[in-house]
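Q: Sequence in, structure out?
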Amino acid sequence: MPNVEVLNMSGAKVGEVTLSDAVFGIEPNGAVVHEAVKNHLANCRQGTQSALTRAEVSGGGRKPWRQKGTGHARQGSTRSPQWTHGGIVFAPKPRDYSYVLNKKIKRLALKSVLSAKAADGEIIVVDSIKMDAIKTADFRKFLDAVKADGKSMVIVPEKDDVVVKSARNLPGVSTTTATILSVYDILNAKKLVIDQTALAKIEEVFA
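A: Exactly. Output:
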């Protein structure tokens, strides 16, 4: 079972916690993680692209010249795809790219990325992440104190508007709750800064 130091918001060690093998100690499954990332990106697509086919562009009702005798190739409409301002062949239309991923696959992918982060030493556990006031500078000092440099994801037990608003102007820093974790966001973060209570919730929900 992997052990991780527990820090306070000043960066001082205040204890140690043993991570659950069921969540943070499995063999990462790369194929399942890939499926989860594909699903996330597909669900993020707006699918609003649209272009006009030759049936939808205006004009082109008259045959541009007679069928034979002009030396030109025969043409039936000035809105055929080969003409300027003509329609688009197989024009893209609005569509929904989202699809549902099996719950077991999503859970395995999440455990895989959490286990990979634990194996790489990229998990920082803090005894309690609390802010008295909305202060971006103070939150930056906290992240510097616990050595969460670069892209970081801060995981709290439940939604805390003071923490969210303190962190939202910091480049590369995101916040989430213990019960709403994204495989894509975890992969995208260099460090996971987890409140100790949130850690217990994660192990309770996903073990």
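The chain has two domains: 3-45+100-206, 47-96.
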